[in-house]
Amino acid sequence: MELKNLEYRPVKVRGHFDHSKELYMMPRTMVDPAREAREAGQPSVQSGAHVITPFHCTDLG
């Protein structure tokens, strides 16, 4: 099977998220090309964070 065919393929895993090791990447600004074209590249006022949470698979130990 080609790697491209595996993109966005649903999978089932068992385990748990380790919220004690979360990583926050911020600031992250929402990119809206239509808005930027309308407002001539004015900076976005909406920002947030990407939250990365490790997942420990039960079957892998």
From TrEMBL:
Entry keyword annotation includes Ion transport: no
Subcellular location, record wording: Membrane; Mitochondrion inner membrane
Assigned keywords, A-Z: Membrane, Mitochondrion, Mitochondrion inner membrane, Transmembrane, Transmembrane helix
GO cellular component: mitochondrial inner membrane
Region of interest: Disordered: 35-61
Family recorded in the similarity comment: Belongs to the SURF1 family.
Role summary: Component of the MITRAC (mitochondrial translation regulation assembly intermediate of cytochrome c oxidase complex) complex, that regulates cytochrome c oxidase assembly.
UniProt protein name: SURF1-like protein
Organism: Pteropus alecto (Black flying fox)
